[in-house]
Structures are given as C-alpha cells and as structure tokens.
Structure prediction request, 294 residues.
Amino acid sequence: MSLRNPAHRQPQRRRASAPRFTDDALRERLCAHLSFLGLTHTRKSLDDLLAWARSERPGHTALLEHVLEAEVAHKTEQRVVRRIDHCGLCERKTLEAFDWDFQPTLDKDFILELARLDFVARHDDLIITGKTGTGKSHILKALGLRACEQAVRIRYARCVDLLDDLHAGLADGTYPRRLKTWMRPALLIIDDVGLGQVRKRPDEPTAAHTLYNIIDRRHGESSTAITSNIDLSDWGRYLGDATLTAAILDRLAMHAICVDIDGPSYRQHVAEQRAATRRPKAAAVQSQRSRSAP
Prediction:
C-alpha cells in the first residue's frame, strides 16, 4: 500500500469570484431581468423598492415577499380590468353604492348573499323583476363586477343587443359561432327584458325562438341572470311566441332564484330632487330680473 506524498497533492482550484458591478450596472441588469420575466410593475417601481429596502433593511425572505406581493396584486388588478373590458359591462356598479334605504322592501342581506356567487357554482339562474328605475340593472351589474373580481367568466348584454347579435349571425352565416360565444360564460347577464324592439324584420325568427336556443342550452349547465321590466306573464306577447316563452320560463323556473323589487323609481327620485334645487334658483333669477326691469 503506497501513500501519496503530501507534497504531490493537486493544487486546489480557486473559485472564480463573481464579477463586480457598479450600482448603476446592477440596476440595468435588474431592469433587463424584470423585463424578460414580464414583471412590469416591479420594473416601474424598482427605484421605490430599492429605497424601501435601504430604509427598512428587511430580511431576504421579507424582501422577496414584499416585491412579489406587489407584483401579484398588480397583475390581479390588471386581469380584473381585462375581464371587465371584455365582458360587456358598460358601467362599474357596486353594491356599496346602492341606496338600500330607498328600497326598504329589498332584502339587503339576501342580495349580499347572492354576491358571494354561490348560485353560479350551483348553476342556478336568477330573475329580478320590477318597474323601471328600481335598481334591477344596478344589482346585476354589481354582481357581474364581483364575478370579474373572483375570476368567474361572465358576459353582459341587454336583451335587444343579444338578440340583434344572433340575428346578425343568421344573416352572415356566423350564427353557430356566435351562439357558442353566448354559451361559454359561467354567468350570462341578460338585462332589460321588456325594453326595446326585439324583432326588426319579418324574416327574422321570433325573439322567443332565439332566446329559447340560449336558455335551453345553458339550462342546468351554467347560470343565467335576467332582469325584466315587465311581468313574466307578459313575456309571451313581448317575445312573440307564447308556447316557446312558456318553455323558456319553465326551464328558468326549475333552478331560478326570483327577486321582485316593489318600489319607486330612483331615477325619478333624482330628477325630482334636481328639479327642486332648480326652482329656488329660477325664482331668484326671475326676481332679480323683475327688480332690474324699468
């Protein structure tokens, strides 16, 4: 057994030291890395983050958590905005802005329970009826906004606009594709049934036929929320076919949550308030003119 002479040991290789960069060079490299990774918010706020790190001196884990938390919050907000932009919601209504005192017969706790969107997970439908101006659309738009915030795929349309879209598909041969588009959302909001002309040409199918195709395909598979400005008993006359309308209502009734808002018009209330504030001003102007007249 031979022993190696310690004098003949292999010399140890020195580890290559990491290249040293100036602060400006490191910042440029950080910006390049963040851009490559798509961390745009962190890149834009990099100077503020570096200043915070120098001031607070957090640990390594706390620093990473702080940076990533802000990036995740930014990306989440961006996704919500994109969902809202693409779902058809023309207004961002919230339940926090709803005047509950003006509609005292409306069960606030029940509406807030609906806002949890458990009914969407159950594939239940929702029908809100009431006169114009009672807040039906406000509530559904607020539920749509909550759905966007909770990453639930939704689509919003007024009833007449939905029907116009499908009738246009019949004219240009894109009806099957358009119909599939209306099938995809987990929550489809159809607003203002009873408002607007739903059949514009004699060669178009009845609104009942078109709406039935949607409701029948979504029945039990996904949720549809509807507001109606007319009594459900008047749908047959409005949609143009009593038999198909009965089939629509039959499918909706099976899994539907029904809310009726029996109250005054908020729009009329606001109009009366504005008129009341204008009257004293108008009277003051008239009085001033009378005094100024020779």
Summary: The CA atoms of residues 59 and 122 lie 45 Å apart. The two ends are 134 Å apart (CA to CA). The longest helix spans residues 60-87.
